[in-house]
Design goal:
836 residues; alpha+beta; C8orf32 fold; 6-stranded antiparallel beta sheet; 5-stranded antiparallel beta sheet; flat; Bact_TGase-like; DUF3488 and transglutaminase-like domain-containing protein; membrane
Length: 836
């Protein structure tokens, strides 16, 4: 029975479980998981106490885990609150089902309802059973990393954001500690150990009890495994460092930069790519929050406020709607100056709306501001910026949490006549906002034509699409429907299930509009909310909403509402007046618009009806709609950052070498500082000039620089040689000329005097610097071109400094793990003493 491996396995599981933190909205899940791990450890130790087979060891852990889950979650149905009964088993099954449904209903972080807590606790416990079986019972520690990796992969798979590097590092250190403990066990099992007193720490031997391999070891003595330990430390530290640092150099993996420090959006210039997690990921979580908490409140002079928009999603890859990467510069900042004009708004009537918004402090990670479309002026504290194409307001480093801001918006009030008329679509709008992936099935394309058959204008087509979703198509609003993850989910929503919530409705209508050639995108934000007093409104979590925006010449982007409103749908959603089917025949828009002359409308002969704006056919695209910057042939910012990082890494050895040289000479102090005022040979100069540098320090600096130069050029030096022997060895090895050999002898002689006769060391620092340059040039002339290039761009002396720093860090890490191992040794010894 190996107590140490059992304890280290449990610690590795707990360290790995730290990576689950992004999945839950509160922290008690960890303590519940801790109880599960301790239960598995107790069960494993109990079964191994009777030397049972490995299979029974795993079954013992599972049995005790079951008892723990019974006490933790179904004590009311168990006998004496402990022994499982049929009722407790049924209740556990019900909780598992509830947890599974809740996990599919909520987006991370999920509320810690009993079912989800049970799933988390049981999952951590099962990982503990697997690790305990592999590491402590079968002594297969390397495969024990697979269940740990599986546990870490859960948040990595369900979240759009990366797991925090610190959480990964804790899990990695737990696994490395498990490997170290296993290695110690194997070393002790080799037989009689060779002792050394190099280690003076009071750390008990790993084999001081048990097999007897460590009997007779004194305090402070350990096996002489320093070479193996050093190699293991270097490999472990290098592996963790590469795993943490390498992904930061790959564009797209860490959009916020190294360790999350790149999101600052500093005050300087330059372009930064704005990336956030998928905005639709949090939509269902907001709609299904049980507390329906207040998100924001606002005051407005608008009698019937419009929606508050956060995002405009313009890219559809066949599965999901996202927005194009925003290339942010300092010119995009909003500092009480007019914002860009709303795209396309030139003919429709408008009015100005003023809104004062206050976001609640408990709102987290809101880096986009909810504002009524289209914002024209914004007053807000912090570094906030605007995207000219979409008028989204965002920040690279600030959050809207707890902020108050005032926004002035231009609200368009188009009539059906304005929307039905208008000029032709701009070519850039058509090319970008009518793209449809080739993967869209033909039956969906035919469906768009079938629903809008007979419509003569783009406005009429849009109204018929909206009416089909809200009343004629047989759709039903259902928050329990899973969010669409693939293109076939959208097909299923349109043709078979017809059940969903605002995300499906908005995404489907925008897609059908694009198929018809109408520029479309998906907007996301909040409805107007609930009126609490004249001019005052409150917006809650369940007011989160998604809707389509369609582009019309002369009006720009116009909101439509395909989601059912009221009690049968999104409770606070509203249908715009210009989308009412009755408006197609009222006095504001003739049912049969006049046909333009061929001169006025060059596309009249090709259109389905009069005054139809020119709309190109939707462009089929590949799976991903690349950002405009990449289409223009620009270099992505991520690759530029990666190239800069690579250049910095390549320049690091040279930089370290230059800094080391300067540091050595900077350490040479004036002679007065060494001997005290009035005591040095150069003290009290009457001419007021600088004091000469101390020749002892100068000799040491020149000697160390000479040895570093020799190492950089690949010349071998014997550490036991005196300075004179080293100079003679280099002179014979390189066959130096008289001048170079003399410079080398003078440097060696100065070092000998500085070591053994400090009072006679009088060689000036300037002379030693000149001799050092002569020797360096001689080294370069005596070696081949490859050695010269290596000495210049990849000096081995710098690499030795790197290795020394890494070894020092690994040594400190080894001391920490040594203390941890000592703690487990003492705990094992106490347990054995009590058993005796």
């Amino acid at each position: 029975m190996n107590i140490r491996m059992t304890i280290m396995g449990a610690l590795a599981v707990l360290a790995g479980s730290v990576g689950l933190y992004p999945l839950f909205s509160s922290g008690p899940w960890f303590w519940s998981g801790l109880g599960a791990v301790l239960s598995v450890v107790a069960g494993g130790l109990l079964v191994r106490r009777f030397r049972a087979p490995a299979v029974l060891s795993a079954l013992g852990g599972l049995a005790v885990l079951h008892l723990y889950l019974t006490v933790r979650f179904t004590a009311g149905q168990a006998w004496l609150g402990l022994v499982p009964t049929p009722s407790s088993l049924r209740r556990l099954g019900e909780l598992f089902g509830e947890g599974w449904d809740a996990a599919n209903q909520y987006a991370a972080p999920v509320p810690l309802v009993p079912g989800i807590a049970l799933l988390a606790t049981a999952g951590i416990g099962l990982v503990a059973v697997a690790v305990d079986l592999l590491a402590a019972r079968l002594r297969r520690v390397a495969p024990a990393g697979l269940p740990l990796l599986a546990m870490y992969s859960v948040p990595a798979a369900v979240r759009e954001e990366s797991i925090n590097w610190a959480a990964f590092g804790i899990g990695a250190l737990g696994y490395l500690a498990l490997l170290v403990a296993d290695s110690r066990e194997h070393v002790v099992g080799w037989g009689r150990v060779v002792l050394t007193r190099r280690w003076t720490e009071d750390v008990p031997m790993a084999g001081a009890a048990g097999s007897g391999a460590g009997k007779g070891l004194g305090r402070g003595e350990r096996p002489d495994s320093s070479a193996l330990a050093a190699s293991g430390r270097r490999i472990g530290v290098a592996a963790v460092a590469i795993a943490v640092l390498l992904p930061t150099a790959v564009p797209g993996i860490h959009p916020r930069g190294l360790f999350g420090l790149g999101s600052g959006g500093g005050r300087g210039g330059g372009t930064q790519t704005v990336t956030t997690p998928d905005p639709l990921v949090s939509l269902k979580r907001e709609l299904t929050r049980q507390d329906d908490s207040v998100v924001l409140t606002y005051r407005t002079d608008d009698e019937q406020p419009d929606y508050l928009r956060l995002y405009a999603l313009d890219r559809f890859d066949g599965d999901r709607w996202t927005y194009s990467a925003l290339e942010s510069t300092s010119k995009d900042r909003v500092t009480d100056r007019p914002l860009p004009r709303p795209p396309g708004l030139s003919e429709a009537a408008t009015r100005e709306v003023r809104t004062t918004v206050r976001v609640q402090r408990k709102v987290r990670n809101m880096t986009f501001l909810p504002v009524p479309y289209a914002p024209s002026r914004l007053s807000v504290e912090g570094d906030w910026r605007v995207d000219a194409a979409s008028l989204m307001i965002y920040s690279l480093r600030d959050s809207a949490s707890g902020r108050s801001y005032e926004v002035t918006s231009v609200r368009a009030e188009p009539t059906a006549k304005v929307l039905a008329g208008g000029s032709t679509y701009p070519s850039d709008v058509v090319s970008h906002y009518t793209r449809v992936p080739k993967s869209i099935p033909q039956q969906i394309r035919e469906l768009a034509q079938e629903v809008t058959e007979g419509a003569t204008t783009a406005h009429e087509q849009a109204v018929r699409l909206q009416r089909w979703f809200t009343s004629e198509g047989g759709f039903q609003y259902d928050l329990n429907a899973p969010p669409p993850q693939h293109g076939n989910d959208l097909v299923d929503f349109l043709q078979r299930s017809k059940r969903g919530y605002c995300e499906q409705y908005a995404a489907a209508m925008a897609l059908l509009a694009r198929i018809l050639g109408i520029p479309a995108r998906v907007a996301m934000g909040y409805t107007a909310g609930t009126k609490t007093a004249p001019g005052q409104w409150v917006v809650r979590s369940r007011d989160a909403h998604a809707w389509p925006e369609l582009y019309f010449p002369g009006t720009g982007w116009v909101r439509f509402e395909p989601t059912p409103v009221g009690a049968a749908g999104q409770g606070t959603a509203s249908t715009p007046a210009y989308t009412d089917a009755a408006s197609l025949g009222d006095g504001s828009a003739p049912a049969e618009p006049e046909a333009p002359s061929p001169e006025d409308s060059p596309t009249a002969a090709q259109s389905n009806g009069p005054q139809q704006p020119e709309r190109r056919q939707p462009q089929d695209q590949g799976p991903v709609d690349a950002p405009a910057k990449e289409e223009e042939g620009g270099v992505p910012a991520g690759w530029l950052a990666a190239g800069l990082l690579v250049a910095m890494l390549l320049a690091a050895p040279v930089t370290v070498r230059v800094l080391a040289r300067r540091r050595r000479w900077a350490a040479v102090v004036p002679r007065e500082d060494r001997t005290g005022p009035g005591l040095g040979l150069g003290a009290g100069r009457s001419d007021g000039g600088p004091l000469p540098l101390d020749p002892v320090d100068a000799a040491h600096a020149a000697w160390r620089e000479m040895r570093a130069d020799a190492l950089d050029h690949g010349l071998s030096l014997r550490a036991a040689d005196t300075p004179r022997a080293t100079a003679r060895h280099l002179g014979e090895l390189l066959e130096l000329d008289a001048e170079s050999a003399g410079a080398l002898r003078r440097i060696a002689h100065a070092e000998e005097l500085a070591r053994y006769s400090r009072s006679r060391a009088q060689t000036p620092a300037e002379s030693l610097r000149a001799d050092l340059k002569t020797v360096r040039d001689a080294f370069a002339a005596a070696v081949n071109r490859r050695a010269r290039l290596r000495a210049r761009y990849l000096p081995p002396s710098s690499m030795a400094a790197f290795r020394s720093a890494a070894l020092e860090a690994a040594t400190r890490l080894n001391r920490v793990t040594g203390r941890l191992n000592g703690l487990t040794d003492r705990l094992s010894a106490r347990i054995r003493d009590r058993r005796r």
